[in-house]
Amino acid sequence: MSVLTGDPILMTAGSQEADWFEEWFGEDYLHIYQHRDEMEAERAVELIATNLAGRRIDTVLDLACGAGRHTRVLRERWWTVGLDLSMSLLKIARKESSDAPYVRADMRELPFAESSFDLVVNLFTSFGYFGDDSEHIRVLACVGAAMKHGGTLVIDFLNASQVRRDLVAYDERVENGITIEQRRAISPDDRFVEKTIRLRESGKEYIERVRLLSPRDLQRMLIATGFRIAKLFGDYSGGDWSEDSPRTILFASRE
After folding, report:
1. Of the candidates 134, 135, 125, 107, which has an alpha carbon nearest to the alpha carbon of residue 70?
2. What does the pLDDT look like over 165-207, one tens digit per residue?
3. What percent of the chain has pLDDT over 70?
4. Domains of the chain with CATH codes
5. Do β-strands 170-175 and 178-186 pair in parallel, antiparallel, or remain unpaired?
6. Is residue 165 exposed (0-12), middle (13-18) or buried (19+ Cβ within 10 Å)?
7. Taking the CB of the first residue and of the last residue of the chain, which one, N or C, has fewer CB atoms within 10 A?
């Protein structure tokens, strides 16, 4: 099965200007987030499968798949292609699942034919990375074009209310002999959560900067790009969303 308009894994598209996520999502990133295990991925995919039970799903896109943690679980149920901008993370994904189709591309310029996917998932806060909301809308418009009408988009995002309230300004821990220092702050304009990650021994420093989008913000963007909001959850168990929920999980239907 092919939905690509070019060559898998070697394909790249999008802006030539370096952004924080181009610097950060490499091998060092995995030292920070290696505590994210397969069980969490299985819970996320189980929530999706339960809420789409009875729907025919032939093709799935894992948008911003990273090292393929969710892609591998999705592939146990459906034919799935993973897409990410980081070649380092995609190489790891290929080692874990050599027969899976992976594509390197910018999510703002998807290299797929129109109406390719029944289901697109964007998991573990892999949205909100751009400084201008017009770029986030551009992503959703590209996703919509690549989806079949009536298909489903699932966005698993942070809960902006909970992040603002419970933000931990500083922590440090040791992983594999590396001391990881993390400093967090809300931007002066209250629109972003910003994290500075420093690896003490090497002196390497990275930035994460994610837009604090509320469910209403996300819904507005989705409606503007041709989606209809279907469901909203606050955790991987399918609990109702509240300002105290750990996650914002939106199901949207392509009109």
Report:
1. 125
2. 999 999 999 988 889 999 999 999 999 999 999 999 999 999 9
3. 91
4. 20-254 (3.40.50.150)
5. antiparallel
6. exposed
7. N
